[in-house]
Amino acid sequence: MNKVKATTLAVQHLLAMYAGAILVPLIIGGALGFDSKQMTYLVAIDIMMCGIATLVQVYSGKFIGIGLPVVLGCTFTAVSPIIAIGTNPEQGITDIYGSIIASGFIVMIIAGFFGKLVKFFPPVVTGSVVSIIGISLLPVALNNMAGGQGAPDFASGSNVALAFITLVIILVVYRFSTGFVRAISILIGLVAGTVLGMFMGKVDFTPVDEAGLLHMVQPFYFGMPTFDLTAIVTMTLVAMVSLVESTGVYFALSDICEKKLDSKDLARGYRSEGLASVIGGIFNAFPYTTFSQNVGLTRMSGVKDRKIIYITGGLLVALGFLPKLAALTTIIPTSVLGAAMLAMFGMVITQGMGMLVPVMNESAENAMIAAIAVGLGVGVSVVPGIFDSLPPEVAILTSNGIVCGSVTAIILNILFNMIGPKHKKDPMHG
């Protein structure tokens, strides 16, 4: 593959994860009352650290790196706990970063033990988790297609039309082209949708004008970290929740790349995420996890080469130093981005289904495990307040649909397939 093709595919991966990556610092910075200068730093450093975290994970070494074409970004699971710590009168922003650094070290220490839990993630569990991830993300895609939640023109005819025109462009390119052009169908759709959005008055170049030319990073920008025990416990729980999410993504990618994962591979992957959080905390970014939208993109494009993700990681690091370039990628209209997300998240769902079908045909028990796990996981995503009455220690496992579904799948798999007498194959399925 030549350099131009590889770089184009890498840019497509960057654009796929960019909105999700910058959303976390924008939400947290807004909630903590940051000014525009602090917000600019937060977004730029976040993008750079996404690149570093990705490079650490794609690398396959003795102690770190899962060696799969995986892209890392800020975990949404951490948003609420970080805001809670930052707005607590007895805690503050330095406690946020102290807890992120400490939780990262804890993850690195327990990675080996966590990696031995691979037997608890057979295809019926990982297929359920991957399906839940895709389905749970659909509301994000549809809200974006409508213009973004809270937008004054939410669900306007122009937003919906722009989203569906973008989707049609992606589908037409995907259907009537082959090879490289087909692999970058998402990118072509994003560019074409943005150009159309300019004619519709939906592209605002103000962020590009206001951004500086060069941006230098500095450790502990918001002050030296402080270590509050409650904050550390909270962020460690969040980190473990992210590991469960990441495990599903690892297995989805291993399925696409036809690379079998063992406990040592998982331990290296977890260790990389812990290291990424430590580095992120030092430079005042956030905890990192694998991004599901890039799994959908890998499946759609059919390109599994890690070199592409190395370039993506390098571009993300470069963007962190170049605020004007970083701002340029923020001008893509939300509805255009939503259309691309719909295609990618849909591919994540079909990936999960593909993992589930063979094992559901093996036994009725597996079909029941998947039914309840996916049903609960998606249900919690649709009705997030259903378990609000539970104590906070339990709520961390039930407030997030992906985690709730994952835990359910693991428990049911133990119950049906790992303890007690082994059932014979269902006679209906041979």
From TrEMBL:
Where does the record say this protein resides? Answer: Cell membrane
Give membrane topology per the record. Multi-pass membrane protein
Instruction: Tell me the keywords, alphabetical order.
Output: Cell membrane, Membrane, Transmembrane, Transmembrane helix, Transport
- The residue ranges crossing the membrane are 12-33, 39-56, 63-84, 96-114, 121-142, 154-173, 180-200, 220-244, 308-332, 338-360, 367-387, 399-419
Q: What is its main location?
A: membrane
Q: What InterPro entries does this protein map onto?
A: NCS2 (IPR006043), UacT-like (IPR017588), Xan_ur_permease (IPR006042)
In terms of Pfam families, this protein maps to: Xan_ur_permease (PF00860)
Q: Which domain of life is it from?
A: Bacteria
Keyword Transmembrane: yes or no? yes
Q: Which residues form a coiled coil?
A: none
- Family membership noted in the UniProt record: Belongs to the nucleobase:cation symporter-2 (NCS2) (TC 2.A.40) family.
Query: Mind telling me which NCBIfam families this protein's record contains?
Result: ncs2, NCS2_1, pbuX
Q: What is the protein name given in its UniProt record?
A: Xanthine permease
Report the source organism: Lysinibacillus contaminans
